[in-house]
Structure formats: structure tokens, C-alpha cells
Amino acid sequence: MAGATHSGIWNDEGFPGRRKLLETTPPDGWQYLGAHRIRVEPPDLIRIEFLGDISAREMSTLGDIFLECVEEMSWVMVSADLRRLGDMASETRRAAAQSPSMWHIHGSVVWGANLHQRLITWMTWHAMTLIRRGKHIPLLQAVVTEAEAEAWVARQRQERAARLAGNKDAPSV
User: Fold this and answer.
1) What pairing do the DSSP bridges indicate for beta strands 36-41 and 31-33?
2) Is 27 part of a structural domain of the chain?
3) What is the pLDDT of residue 85?
4) Which residue has the higher pLDDT, 173 or 113?
């Protein structure tokens, strides 16, 4: 499916915004960014299935999507399926690092990544923590299976609920 294009989230005119997406979302909820699939699941989750290579422009558009979702849902997590991710060139990693909207989410869990993808992800993330010292850094967790990713999302929701309820023993993020 790499290289396939679909109507949906992004085209040459750019990202139309979530409000427009809500009017055109297919029944299964998945929208396309190039070959990649994205589904927003209120109240707080964005699911991404990467299919093939991701370009710098697509990465930048993901940042726009994240920002729009944060504006609408306030507290947002991302669950990313990397089983079929292709190449993430240095320009793409740079676009992710330079997109200020990438840093507004609560955190991400990536799953299904091979060793090389996990290493690139962690190296990029740790470099950004050094560059962004003193600023909000979203959580990043790499797990093997989708079930582990779901468990991570559930834990984040529980910890947030405990913080909102005033539980002083809840982890602060």
C-alpha cells in the first residue's frame, strides 16, 4: 500500500482542519495522510497506522493534526502502529523536531517497531529532550504489541483521572 494515495486528510492544498474532517470522516473513522491512516478517538486518542515511507511534509501535517486535536480535546495521546513504517529520512525527523505543534500532546506510545526504528525513535527523542530543556516534553513509550499500547493508554488515563481528583500520590506529568 506504500505510495497509494487516498482522499481524506491531506492533499496538495494542505490539511483542511479537524472541523472539516468531522464532516467527511468515513464510517470506520479512518482518514488518510498519503498512504498512512489516522483515526481520532475522542475524548483523548489519535491512532496512526504508518504504511510505507513518511515524508517531511506528511510529518509536518501530522503536527498540524496534533495541534488541532489538542485545541479541541485539550489532553491528547497518540498510539502509533509502526509495523509497516518504511523510511523516515533525516528531513522527516528534522520536520518532527522543528514542528512546535508536535510538543503539545501528552504523550505517545509506539508499537510494532523493529530494532532500527526503536533506536531511531529513541535517539531522536532524547536529542530533543536536550534541545528542549526546561520545556514540556511529551511522554514516549515503545512497546511490542498493540495490547501493551492499549494498556499504556489506559494507565495514562487512570493517572490523569487520579491527578484531576486531587490524589497527591498520582504521578505528575
Assistant:
1) antiparallel
2) yes
3) 92
4) 113
